């Protein structure tokens, strides 16, 4: 009988016992006595004696625990390889099957055998997992081999799905391959891929590669139960049917992953490492190879074989990113409202606003609030430091346009609608997703939006909102809002307007334009304001130019400053906040407000609201023409006026307290130049205190008067006149002082007639008593007739003396008195202002000169 070369080698090495079985080989060697006892106690002697064509991995006595008494048949089968092994069957790392049948996680038997790994090192030593093969005995009768091993086989070889699930709780030190395990263990992915019912090969990339292949948001999506399909598709690229590992003896095996795509596998270092090659000729060497499980073999890689490859296309969409961001409720709401086209297409130019806190997102209200979360494209890279307005998809019919969303960016920090902060920003295709710290809501009514951060403008917003409740506007409109300080800076004029609702309403209606004109407005548009006046709106740099082409027979225009910061979006349009007055440098001026061209506010209106008597005084002296608004005079009036005047004192007073056009503006600016009065020889100087108060005095004089209040007039456009120097006379007003600018030596103040009468009466009475007393004491008795004659003569003399005094008083023109009481005069002829050393101008001359 011929003996093969391999059989001859074994005969030389261990000898042949033709009549022995594996059990005989064990019994004949005292090193296996404990194993024989365990087999006897486990009733497995007959089973072992009947084994043929196998290799038994038999632990020696020192490898067994002294307390171990029995062994299960399943445990024994794990130590039996299903073929007799010869030396040249083991070349480097070699994988074989045992007699143990694989089971799934429910312990159901599978038509698979549990693998085992043997390795021959460079010294020809053979290793079985954690054990060293000490000797080899061959049974020719049963064609079986006995391998004596120095350690008991302890590898439990879990099923694939159980292994990855357990690995999440296993303390393996450095976290290197947990991500793959998380993905495969998520929900029922491992079972859905059929990995519990067949032998497979799995290549596992390290955690570091996931950060390269996926963003944090994308990985979060894959771990979400809604990403199950994409998760399975991605993992299938790393899994192949069958167990491929160990020494492939320089052969390159081409196989297919579970997605049906080709992949090449080769071994190096006698099977200690594997090399994977994809279709893009990218090759990666394994870090750890040939890790066996119940029904799988695992190979670990520090680098990803599919890095920068289009092999796996998950078709990222806004929906998947929103799920990765934790916005599932937002996604459900979009699907419910049937606007899912906004989140299922990454090619659409779109910006999405959302929050990650599901509880703070949308209330179940109308679709309008939801579509406001979508706007036109926002190029995050190029527009990072720009301010832009995005047109949202909320386009109500009453606005006749789409509501806008305000995006402000400064040094990389982005805010939305002035109050919402962007906490995260993601781009997928042409879609930008901005994650906010709070949910974006549709703009509220104007005064609510203003109250959120611009309280100084709440007064104007409230007045206009109250007006619109009476006069509603169906379409969108633009509003200009003055700061509360601008109203207060008008002083007496503001007091007048509050007391005249019709005037105030007229002004407020001029602040409202039909149509929405944002800071990004370009070109020119014809529209109307709430007064019904036709206007043309133009953009001029940082101003909106409002042109009234025809009003009261004239054309008129004004420019209103608009800025990004002072632009407030509200439910029906946009409000532009006019500049707030500067407390230190601002000079009150009615021209700062966009008042209607046809508005009229006169000095007489201001005098009436302050209840001062300056108009009565001017009327007495026939100077009421100075109150004519067309002439543009301004009046300075002490808060308390004397009741009696001489010609000289009034002459001096009125020429210093009536200002020609242009002087009021210089006072409010506190110009350092001399400020003209209607006395060409007298000028006023101005000084502003640190607190902003204005002090006035005659130029060159140290005596000052403080400006307590001020008010401005407003001429209708048809009454505005232009002077020879190009200035107009439209700015005039009333200033209330704490006292006259200067009284002067010639300025005499006389007591009223009541004081004179009381004093004279008291003196006469005292004199009369003294006279009677003297007569009674010193005079002798006379007869009645003579006494009467004497008295009559005395009376006659007294009358003559009184008449002489009256004649002298009539001749004294410089001392003539005029008494003013409630506007009534006690003289027959109007007093004419005469030329004096104070340079007063004759009444008729003043009229002629200053009307020109």
Q: What's a concise summary of this model?
A:
The chain is built from 26 helices and 39 strands.
Describe this structure in words.
With 852 residues, the chain is α+β, with helices and mostly antiparallel strands. The protein folds into 5 domains: 5-101 and 113-149, FAS1 domain (Roll), CATH 2.30.180.10; 160-301, FAS1 domain, CATH 2.30.180; 318-436, FAS1 domain (Roll), CATH 2.30.180; 446-562, Roll (FAS1 domain); 600-765 and 814-852, no CATH class. The strands form 8 sheets. It has a 7-stranded mixed sheet with strand order 2-1-7-6-5-4-3. The chain has a 7-stranded mixed sheet with strand order 17-16-22-21-20-19-18, covered by helices on one side. Strand 26 and strand 27 form a beta hairpin. Residues 1-19, 743-752 and 781-852 have low confidence and may be disordered.
Helix content range: 25-40%
Main beta sheet strand tally, sense and closure: 7 strands, mixed
| Gyration radius from CA atoms, angstroms | 54 Å
**Intertermini distance:** 149 Å
Calculate the mean pLDDT score and round it.
Answer: 81
Global geometry: rod-shaped
Work out the helix count: 26
């Amino acid at each position: 009988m011929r003996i093969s070369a391999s059989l001859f080698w074994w005969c030389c090495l261990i000898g042949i016992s033709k009549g022995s079985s594996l059990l005989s080989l064990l019994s004949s060697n005292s090193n296996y006595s404990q194993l024989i006892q365990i087999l006897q106690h486990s009733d497995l002697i007959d089973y072992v004696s009947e084994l043929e064509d196998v290799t038994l991995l038999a632990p020696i006595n020192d490898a067994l625990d002294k307390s171990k008494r029995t062994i299960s048949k399943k445990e024994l089968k794990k130590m039996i390889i299903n073929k007799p092994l010869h030396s040249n069957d083991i070349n480097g790392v070699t994988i074989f099957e045992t007699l143990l049948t694989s089971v799934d996680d429910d312990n159901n038997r599978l038509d698979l055998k549990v693998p085992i790994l043997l390795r021959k090192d460079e010294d020809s030593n053979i290793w079985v997992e954690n054990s060293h093969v000490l000797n080899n005995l061959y049974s020719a009768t049963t064609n079986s081999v006995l391998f004596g091993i120095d350690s008991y086989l302890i590898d439990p070889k879990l099923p694939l799905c159980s292994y990855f699930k357990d690995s999440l709780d296993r303390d393996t030190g450095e976290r290197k391959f947990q991500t793959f395990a998380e993905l495969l263990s998520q929900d029922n992915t491992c079972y859905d891929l059929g990995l519990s019912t067949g032998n497979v090969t799995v290549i596992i990339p390290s955690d570091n590669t996931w950060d390269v292949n996926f963003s944090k948001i994308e990985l979060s999506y894959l771990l979400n139960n809604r990403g199950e399909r994409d998760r399975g598709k991605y993992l299938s690229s790393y899994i192949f049917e069958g167990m491929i590992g160990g020494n492939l003896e320089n052969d390159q095996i081409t196989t297919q992953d579970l997605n049906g795509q080709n992949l090449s596998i080769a071994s190096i270092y006698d099977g200690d490492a594997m090399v994977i090659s994809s279709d893009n000729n990218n090759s990666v060497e394994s870090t750890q190879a040939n890790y066996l499980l119940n029904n799988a073999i695992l190979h670990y890689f520090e680098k990803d074989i599919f890095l920068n490859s289009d092999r796996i296309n998950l078709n990222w969409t806004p929906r998947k990113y929103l799920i990765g961001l934790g916005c599932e409720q937002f996604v459900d709401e979009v699907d419910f409202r049937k606007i899912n086209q906004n989140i299922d297409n990454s090619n659409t130019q779109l910006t999405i606003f959302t929050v990650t806190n599901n509880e703070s997102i949308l209330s179940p209200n109308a679709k309008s609030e939801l579509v406001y979360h979508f706007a036109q494209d926002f190029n995050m890279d190029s527009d990072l430091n720009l301010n832009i307005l995005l047109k949202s998809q909320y386009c109500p019919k009453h606005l006749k346009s789409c509501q806008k969303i305000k995006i402000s960016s400064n040094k990389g920090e982005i805010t939305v609608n002035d109050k919402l902060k962007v906490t995260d920003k993601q781009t997928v295709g042409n879609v930008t997703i901005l994650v906010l710290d709070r949910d974006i809501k549709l703009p509220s009514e104007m005064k609510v939006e203003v109250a959120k951060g611009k309280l100084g403008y709440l007064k104007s917003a409230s007045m206009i909102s109250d007006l619109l409740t009476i006069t509603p506007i169906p379409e969108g409109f633009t509003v200009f809002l003055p700061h509360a300080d601008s109203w207060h800076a008008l002083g007496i004029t503001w007091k007048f307007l509050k007391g005249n609702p019709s005037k105030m309403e007229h002004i407020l209606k001029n602040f409202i334009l039909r149509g929405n004109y944002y800071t990004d407005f370009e070109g020119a548009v014809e529209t109307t304001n709430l007064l019904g006046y036709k206007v043309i709106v133009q953009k001029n740099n940082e101003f909106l130019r409002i042109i009234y082409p025809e009003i009261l027979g004239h054309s008129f225009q004004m420019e209103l400053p608009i800025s990004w910061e002072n632009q407030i979006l509200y439910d029906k349009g946009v409000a532009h906040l006019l500049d707030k007055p500067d407390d230190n440098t601002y000079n009150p001026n009615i021209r700062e407000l966009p008042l209607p061209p046809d508005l009229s506010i006169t000095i007489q209106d201001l005098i009436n609201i302050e209840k001062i008597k300056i108009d009565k005084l001017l009327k007495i002296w026939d100077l009421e023409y100075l109150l004519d608004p067309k002439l543009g005079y301004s009046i300075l009036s002490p808060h308390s006026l004397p009741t009696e005047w001489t010609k000289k004192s009034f002459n001096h007073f009125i020429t210093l307290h009536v200002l020609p056009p242009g002087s009021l503006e210089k006072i409010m600016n506190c110009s350092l130049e001399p400020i003209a009065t209607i006395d060409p020889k007298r000028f006023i100087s101005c000084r502003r205190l640190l607190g902003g108060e204005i002090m006035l005095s005659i130029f060159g004089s140290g005596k000052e008067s403080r400006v307590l209040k001020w008010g401005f007039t407003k001429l209708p456009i048809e009454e505005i006149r232009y002077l020879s120097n190009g200035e107009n006379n439209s700015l005039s007003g009333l200033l209330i002082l704490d006292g006259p600018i200067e009284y002067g030596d010639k300025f005499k103040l006389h007591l009223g007639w009541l004081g004179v009468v009381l004093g004279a009466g008291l003196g006469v009475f005292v004199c009369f008593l003294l006279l009677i007393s003297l007569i009674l004491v010193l005079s002798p008795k006379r007869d009645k007739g003579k006494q009467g004659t004497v008295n009559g003569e005395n009376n006659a003399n007294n009358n003559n003396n009184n008449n002489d005094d009256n004649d002298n008083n009539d001749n004294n023109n410089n001392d003539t008195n005029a008494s003013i009481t409630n506007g009534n005069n006690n003289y027959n002829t109007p007093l004419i202002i005469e030329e004096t050393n104070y340079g007063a101008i004759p009444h008729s001359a003043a009229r002629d000169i200053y009307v020109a």
